[in-house]
Specification:
Elements: H1 2-11, H2 13-44, H3 46-50, E1 56-59, H4 75-81, E2 86-100, E3 106-114, E4 125-128, E5 139-143, H5 144-148, E6 170-173, E7 176-185, E8 195-199, H6 200-206, E9 216-221, H7 227-238, E10 241-244, H8 245-259, H9 262-291, H10 293-301, H11 306-339, H12 351-377
Parallel strand pairs: 3-8, 5-7
Antiparallel strand pairs: 1-9, 1-10, 2-3, 2-6, 2-9, 4-7, 5-8, 6-7
Helix pairs in contact: 1-11, 2-9, 2-11, 2-12, 9-12, 11-12
């Protein structure tokens, strides 16, 4: 009977391919949109992930997320170093500065100032040059996306292409000379701005003159101390906000989640994909069942039980669901591979997302099977003789 059910399904190729296409499109939307959303949210705290060595981030109590750095006095650094349980503490400058290109265009960039002595907080992967070269006069390191994108040298001809920055090129930051000594690999940020690394002292000279210029203090706790205990001790002794790296990530994530409409927009697309997929699949599958009512009537007249008919319809629904979901997930995986590593649109694909979308597709095909089963079970076998 199962073989006959499959022959019935494959025999009507128009409706078979229509059902698969509807499920594939619904799967594509339900996997791709959350994947892009996860990628966007991970960018909100990508800078914290890149600076992986410190255990604790110390900041002004008014800071709400990582890009909302509130400058502190440099003397706070020495107070933090004197707290019990702190192994070392280094300064970090983080600010937005404008870079002037050769054609006079101004490009906003994230300027990061690393501790002059240790260079803690620098990029982990250097594609060209060395991190130690930041100690050279006027030296800066640019991330790969910025070097090939917004900070690339303008084309010399109207139809030409920009030339990526190379080691030895010169930039101008706030009317000050900056020598590119390296190209680094870094995670894309939420604002997708170029990232420029330099020393803390040079970063403060690049920045506009302000009394307070210290953005964050990066702290390493002693191995025999609890991170939460040291963080609470820093807050108690200095009045500054001290958070572990994971707590800072969570705070940044919650702020972006609560103060933007990103989740609503992407969630609406996912819900529409589910509803449209269920409506299209259910309608086509129901029409397919109506076209084959005479065969189900014959089966009932020959003694087929309601249980057997339900299993036949369920087999048809699960098969088209499996094939459609496979096509949709495959197309999404190709999209994820094509956008991997890009500074612009990208997506994250993980097993939790595939399982969740797979459950949603299963609900769609079960809904389609349910409305078809009800029609078949109410069918009178005598209809085949009319």
């Amino acid at each position: 009977m199962f073989q006959i059910a499959l022959k019935m399904l494959f025999g009507d190729r128009g409706k078979y391919f229509g059902i698969i296409t509807g499920i594939a499109l619904a799967s594509l939307l339900m996997i791709q949109q959350p994947g892009i959303l996860i990628s966007i949210f991970s960018r909100t705290y990508s800078f914290i992930s890149d600076v992986a060595l410190p255990d604790i981030w110390v900041m002004d109590p008014m800071v709400k997320y990582v890009d909302d750095s509130q400058p502190m006095l440099d003397t706070e650094l020495y107070r933090i170093r004197g707290v019990k349980g702190v192994e070392w503490a280094v300064p970090l400058y983080k600010g937005n500065q404008r870079v002037r290109l050769a054609d006079g265009q101004l490009v906003g960039s994230n300027l990061l100032g690393l501790d002059d002595a240790t260079l803690i907080g620098g990029p982990a992967v250097m594609l060209k040059g060395r991190l130690a070269d930041l100690r050279l006069p006027d030296a800066v390191i640019v991330d790969e996306a910025g070097a090939t994108g917004r900070l690339a040298k303008p084309a010399t001809t109207p139809e030409g292409k920009p030339t990526p920055l190379q080691v030895g090129d010169i930039l101008e930051i706030n009317d000050k000379r900056a020598l590119v000594v390296g190209i680094a690999q870094a995670r894309a940020t939420f604002q997708s701005q170029p990232i420029i690394y330099t020393t803390y002292t040079r970063a403060t000279s690049f920045a506009l003159s302000e009394r307070k210029q210290l953005s964050y203090i990066l702290v390493k706790a002693k191995s025999d101390e609890s991170l939460q205990t040291v963080a609470r001790r820093i807050t108690h002794d200095t009045g500054m906000a001290a958070r572990t790296a994971q707590e800072f990530k969570d705070m940044t994530f919650r702020y972006i989640l609560n103060n933007t409409s990103i989740l609503t927009n992407f969630g609406f697309v996912v819900v529409v994909g589910f509803i449209v997929g269920a409506a299209v699949t259910g309608q086509i599958f129901y029409n397919f069942t109506l076209d084959n009512l005479r065969y189900f009537a014959v089966f009932k007249a020959m003694g087929a039980t309601d249980r057997m008919l339900r299993r036949m319809i369920l087999l048809q629904a699960l098969l088209v669901g499996f094939v459609g979901f496979g096509l949709g997930a495959g197309a999404t995986a190709l999209f994820a591979a094509a956008t991997r590593g890009r500074a612009g649109l990208s997506m994250t694909l993980n097993w939790e997302l595939l399982v969740g979308s797979g459950i949603a597709v299963a609900l769609i095909v079960l809904f389609a099977a349910l409305i078809s089963v009800r029609k078949v079970l109410r069918l009178e076998p005598a209809v085949v003789f009319k």
